[in-house]
User: What shape does this take?
Amino acid sequence: MPASGEGGTTSDPPLVDSYRTLLRKGGGDGFVPALAAESLAVLECDLPMIDLERLMMGDARERGVCMDAMASAASEWGFFQVINHGVGQELLEEMRREQARLFHQPFNIKEKAGLLNGSYRWGTPTATSLRQLSWSEAFHVPLASISGEDDCGHAELSSLRGVMQEVAAAMSRVADTVAGTLAKNLGHESTFPAAAGCDGTTCFLRLNRYPACPFAADTLGMVPHTDSDFLTVLCQDQVGGLEIMKDSHWVAVKPHAHALMVNVGDLFQAWSNNRYKSVEHRVVANSKAERFSVAYFMCPPCDSPVGTCAEPSPYKPFTFGEYRRKVQEDVTRTGKKIGLSNFLKGSTFDGLAE
Assistant: This one.
């Protein structure tokens, strides 16, 4: 059963319990007033908008302008929006309906029934303070397992996997186009991201839900983080809440109905020798409305070397698997991700080839 919140509200999953437990443990760390002060200073912005049709149909000059605009956005913002991306609006609306049906299943079903190969997660299991608590739930699904069969026997979810496959295929085409364009802008003519080993067996689709939060003034839907992949393609609804770090300030991203969000991940920053930026971002909680999003993560195989677009690289050689393990170790040990700085040449982190 959902846990009771203040004023008769409910929490499914039981995020209220996590919140109160951390509060009782003195896990606030001054977080409540700090977040309230930050929220007052947040400005809303329109991110750079890239028309992908110009890459496909424009003349050479238009293609060059579009490539330069995309590279500039990836370098300056780390985030940008794309339109005329080829992912049908009807398909995205169908995905939104399927997500709502999935997430509105009872908590015990989501947690224990093995939905989508047991990929369900909620909150932040490693949180030791309110600053580390994410007021959200998700299914983080490897693409290779989407075509599998559910073992929970829920007929009302029978159409979910087919829609997910369609969305993943459409978003992967966007990611391939963007990644290839950004790589070409750096003078890398080989086929990217295929050259990095990214394909339909290595990437992930993540379905997110951010429930309405009775403690929205001092709680985050998703704590600040960078993405540990090459590239992320995101479809969000119109509720809003995504914020990115720009010039040491949080900036709220204004949602656009027909645009997809694209952001650079840690691996692309490393591969580009820091030309493209993997930018910290977060999601703020909403007291009145739930929020849905779906994200496609472009990832290589775990044993794949991340590599570089050109030597010398500021980073030691490392594989995606090594990077993920170190991130998980840091989060478990410190409660937060450290990320790429561990892999800079001259860092004290052991276990990597020189």
